[in-house]
Amino acid sequence: MEINKVTITHPDKILYPNLKITKEDVAQYYNFIADYMLPYIKNRPLSLLQFPAGISEEGFFHKHAAKYYPSYIKRLNIPTSHHGIIEMIGISNAKGLVYMAGQNTIELHVALATAKKIMFPDQIILDLDPSDEDFEKVRQVALITKQILDKNSFPSYVKTSGSRGLHIHVPLKIKHDFNTVKPITKQLAQLIHEAIPELATIEMRKNKRGNKVFIDYLRNDFSATAVAPYSLRANKWAGIATPITWGEVAKDTKLVAYKYNINNIRERVTKTANPWADL
Hints:
Blueprint: E1 14-16, E2 21-22, H1 23-37, E3 46-50, E4 60-62, E5 73-79, E6 85-91, H2 94-102, E7 105-110, E8 123-129, H3 135-151, E9 157-160, E10 166-171, H4 178-195, E11 200-201, E12 213-216, E13 226-227, E14 243-244, H5 246-251, H6 265-271
Parallel strand pairs: 11-12
Antiparallel strand pairs: 1-2, 3-4, 3-7, 5-6, 7-13, 8-10, 8-12, 9-10, 9-14
Helix pairs in contact: 1-2
């Protein structure tokens, strides 16, 4: 799809002041990445992190489908904890991604279940969140996690968060609801912590974590989301949550969460096979 300056309003608005990245740049990125991103967000309710004044000002999450949205933005009927129904946002094509960029969307966060089976996750996620700037600890915790998952015959996939850590995704058969799955993810996090207590923690309170990597299993809940693969992040690097291989985690001692960003992602996806092709 062609994008020009009449497609979105205020295309020259600066969203990333330090990098001089405009709203049009963000729209162009999401137009480019659509074919890579859409398989992971189609038919799933989205929460969009929007920054009307750019990332130097506070943003807000938006998840309700507005009445004025065009018809190519899907309305997904999702039950609430209060037995009601809300219309959430669904995106199934490049036009939808570009439109939301025009609404000052920078980050897309996605449910761990499809709209039709919203109570039944098809994946779990472990967010390895560092307490300091030493990313080597994150890398080591990720590799130990992979060993534990392999030992228990769980396939796993990894992505940079684009911000601070690494995300490990484990696909599931659509069989059990979140109430069943969430305690298992806590047990898994405990198992990893017990294997490497000097590196990892499951301590909820930040001031009790020291310099350890927090194994965040709390996203595995009906109401929770995780940043979508290939989403931009609202940080000074314009980092991108990027699927990578376990081989890259093992070999790249200089790996950081924001290794891939808006300036180098095109080369990455066009010259590298999709590490999540069989997810």
